[in-house]
Design goal:
Length: 316
């Protein structure tokens, strides 16, 4: 049985490690998983949903299995705290997200469009070569909103509910979605399982992110009412059941309009309008980064509470 205190303390320490150290510069476990998943794809790929299910089960199941072994081997007390902290640090990407957001805003303020375009792929998969300054600001802002949920809130919540296996398993699910969860010729069927699994894994975290965004809207000059109104009115029009929630709530909190023509390397999508007001500027991007930082801290508090509730439920 997981100890609720060890889990909660480990999550907090993992968050602190991410804030102080950021992502490991070399030998990042997520990068290693990506390489292993790519090698596995060479063996499992077929233009078929069943092959994609097999790929997902093997890749994610292996990581969850490692998490279970780590949990059993670490026991309770300091060992469990350390294991949870290291797993959380590995899975989180909050500091890197905030740092890249600030760097993007700095380059746009300086008029360095080439530098901003060079930086955009570290945030999202859009084609930076076709974007002007406003387009780069909008792309970065939307990515900040979505990745606040994916890279910070979701790992913490999964860790609170399921400990080390939950943290590592979620990161595996999210990484696979980023690798193969596309609607293109190669992955339309093979990547179906990865995309749907990621949707399910993020259903609750995205909504927690939306609620935290609404609650914290005053720190960026917005209101909870405007954030919730945009969420309620616009989120359902987005093609993603989760990205729509976090982007709409962010748009409402900031008082800006997101969505519209969105160009990826694999094609063009016409996204629905989220929020109301003017298109986002560099100043709005900086406000979004500030909101992301606040939501991440709020998520730690929520995760600690959830870990305590789950621990009491387990003992009962």
């Amino acid at each position: 049985m997981r100890n609720a205190t060890s889990t909660a303390v480990g999550l907090v320490l993992g968050f602190v490690l991410d804030r102080v150290l950021g992502d490991p510069r070399r030998w990042h476990p997520v990068a290693g998983f990506g390489s292993a998943a790519a090698a596995l794809e060479d063996k499992t790929y077929a233009d078929d949903r069943r092959a994609g299910v097999v790929h997902e089960v093997i890749a994610v199941g292996s990581v969850v299995g490692i998490g279970v072994l780590v949990t059993r081997g670490s026991g309770s007390g300091p060992g469990a705290v350390l294991a949870t902290a290291l797993a959380t640090w590995t899975a989180l990407g909050g500091r890197s997200l905030v740092r890249v957001g600030h760097a993007m805003a700095d380059r746009l303020d300086a008029g360095d469009l080439d530098g901003a375009r060079e930086l955009l792929p570290s945030l999202c998969g859009r084609d930076p070569s076709v974007l002007d300054a406003d387009g780069l600001a909008r792309a970065a802002l939307e990515s900040i909103a979505e990745n606040t949920s994916d890279a910070a809130v979701a790992p913490l919540l999964w860790g609170a509910v399921a400990g080390v296996p939950g943290v590592l398993g979620y990161r595996a699910v999210n990484t696979l979605d980023a690798m193969i969860g596309y609607r293109n010729e190669r992955y339309e069927r093979f990547g179906w399982a990865a995309a749907r699994t990621d949707d399910v894994a993020n259903l609750v975290p995205a909504r927690v992110t939306g609620l935290l965004t609404a609650v914290l809207a005053p720190i960026v000059g917005g209101t909870a009412r405007a954030s919730l109104r945009a969420w309620r009115r616009d989120a359902g029009t987005h093609p993603s059941p989760n990205a729509g929630v976090v982007e709409a709530s962010m748009a409402g909190a900031l008082g800006v309009r997101l969505g519209g023509r969105t160009e990826y390397r694999h094609g063009v999508e016409l996204r629905p309008t989220l929020g109301e007001g003017a298109a986002p500027t560099v100043g709005d991007l900086r406000r979004a980064v500030r909101m992301s930082g606040g939501v991440q801290v709020g998520a730690v508090v929520v995760a600690v509470v959830v870990a305590g509730v789950c621990g009491r439920g387990g003992r009962g």
